[in-house]
Amino acid sequence: MNRRQMIASTAATALAAAASPALARSPKGSLPDMPVPPVAKKIPVTIEQLGRVRVDDYQWMKDDNWQAVLRDPTLIKADVKEHLTAENAYREAMMASTLPLQAAMFEEMKGRIKEADSSVPEPDGPWEYYTRYRTGDQHPLYCRRPRQAYLVGEEMVVSGSRERRDPTSTAAGASMDATDEQVLLDANALAEGKAYSDVGDTAWTPDHALFGYSEDAQGSEVYRIYVKDLATGQLVGEPIESASGGLTFSPDSQWIFWTNRNDNGRPDKIFRRPARGGAITLVYEEEDEGMFIGVGRTSDDRFMIIGIGNQETSETRFIPADDITATPRVVEPREVARKYDADHWGDRWVIHTNADDSIDFKVCEAPTGSPGKASWTDLIPHTPGRYIEGISLVKDFIARQERADANTWIVIRDRAGAEHEIAVDEPAYALNLAGASEFDTTVMRYGYNSPSTPTSTYDYDLATRERKLRKVQEIPSGHNAADYVVERLNAPASDGQLVPVTIVRRKTTPVNGSAPLLLYGYGSYGIPMSASFSTNRLSLVDRGWIYAIAHIRGGSDKGWGWFLDARRFTKKNTFTDFIAAAEHLISTGHGKAGHIVAQGGSAGGLLMGAVNNMRPDLWAGVIGQVPFVDVINTMSDISLPLTPPEWPEWGNPLEDAEAYDYIASYSPYDNIEAKAYPAVLATGGLSDPRVTYWEPEKWVARLRPATTSGKPVLLKINMEAGHAGSSGRFDYLKEVAHDYAFAIWAIDRGWEAA
After folding, report:
1. Which are the catalytic amino acids?
2. Confidence bin at 167 (pLDDT 50/70/90)
3. Single pTM value for the model
4. Closest to 540 in 3D by CA, of 526, 513, 519, 569
5. What is the pLDDT of residue 150?
6. 742 contacts 98 by C-beta, under 8 angstroms
7. DSSP-derived secondary structure letter, 222
8. Which residues in 70-102 are b (16+ Cβ under 10 Å) and which e?
9. Rg of the chain's alpha carbons, rounded to an integer?
10. Cα–Cα distance, 581 to 51 (Å, whole number)
11. Where along the chain do its domains lie?
12. Which terminus of the chain has a lower count of CB atoms within 10 Å, N or C?
């Protein structure tokens, strides 16, 4: 949609609003031309659980047929669809004045994207694989080309001819002869005529004859897998239905393995079949509904690997590549609270684990023939405070990424045990180890960026310690990192812990409390929030905003113990850390109370709901994206995809009265009361299997009549997408622009001028 079309759409929205009973104008005496919000009907349902009783007025919003709705959104109940449609119309009418701002920010965000762009190719045997976009494309092309292009000084040899190239550009990028390129998949053609299309995973056989890919055509994360013969260009075998998205081929190229997703959206089985089609065989079935499962290959292609685990417990099973139809064997039987993952390093197993009280993880090794824990010996011992996030293996080296104090570094180790580090001396940054696409190599890839610095991609020779800059992220509209200031503060929490906060602002933005502040947080599952670069947030920062990331407990920003200190019965540390970050930013002049917009998504949406209840006075606005806010109900519904797997994170309110009471004490939906709430925007996706659409819908329905501030409570449900929003890269930018426009609107109290 171009700008003219957007304006036309706005006019159509206004006409629809005028015709909708939900958008009748305000009566005399109120603010002029203020739309009236939809009023959700109340159908009280009494729920008795562990001797506790709660009443839910809006349980009707959950479609009893939700499993089918995820796969076919047209099956949603008529009254639910009607209410969601009315909520969308109300929000559009309320925010109509922001449409020029949304359009302007969208164009800014789009202008920072190099539209005709490509990834740095991944070498693999005689080919190198990459993705690229054409100008105007919403989706990428998946491509390969012969491995004939290589840098010679500042010249590039391409198919025998020499051409001058910029040595910092993508190697053999867009200038190669079109005949050298083979398009494996055009995701734009795949998406044609569909409201949503997402390619979840791609893979090629080790012999490079077949290409596999998975597509989610609803946003429900239920994928269909296809296999393509690269010699003929034709699909082979029947499409694989109801997959979780990932796929892998066996080392001999003869088989394809994948994970099944059952009717409740959970991964429950590993299957295989001949790669070109044929009978399907069950490889492994997981009996514990609280476990996630997946399948892949070891780095050296000696084994197939089945990974099983949840937030606190894991197990690995393996199948020898030379006996591919064998029953999977266990590396070490699962034990509650012990996590490990295993890879194979040519002549031994390498195990990344928290065993033996190694809170921040260690790396062990074990003989190929006896991988169990009795044979584990420390290869890289546990170092408290240095969290080993993961490892990557090539023939003669092992690389690991470590994290502490909300920053990362990379450590390289050879087989003799000699180590060296790759690090950056900056207050806040992100280093990301990408590993290698081949085993027999000395080259690994990593990326670097910071909140002010676009991403640079390097190939690093582990033996010589030479690095080659392969690509620098281009910002077509222009970007000067020197125009921005990046800061790292430490906010004191109520219990004495120091919460890192990353800040980015323009040099010209004053630090005296006058600038609007957006504070972002997540804080769950041990997932860290990197101090990384984002072209999108510049649309706020360049307007004089300060953007801050709170590295709160619940993530692993300061190590795995940082996560362990904010789950189950310590979960409230996540919320109080975020509040502490806001208060510290106020004390340093980076913000002021009532002039801050808080933002978080998914489990970060739970954070938004909690801090909205706890300290509504701090916020001008709260943006809860796909917010997990109906915690007690969701964690009590075993049919939902994530409920049993997430009991280790939140507790089980079906069996544990203490867990019930603790969850009930902070669950955002259950703790709404009459108070002066800030302006709130809740977003969701109709096909979302992680945070189902009725959670933000119910939250808004209860929150709107409770607030005494007169500030609006808005709901935006994408009726054609799921958890991640729109699948197209430009459509997604429109969603970001909408949310940032709400932030500005909330600060400016735009509804008063509507």
Report:
1. 602, 688, 723
2. very low
3. 0.92
4. 519
5. 39
6. yes
7. -
8. bbebeebbeebbebbbbbbbbbbbbbbebbebb
9. 26
10. 38
11. 3-38+51-112+478-748, 116-193, 397-474
12. N
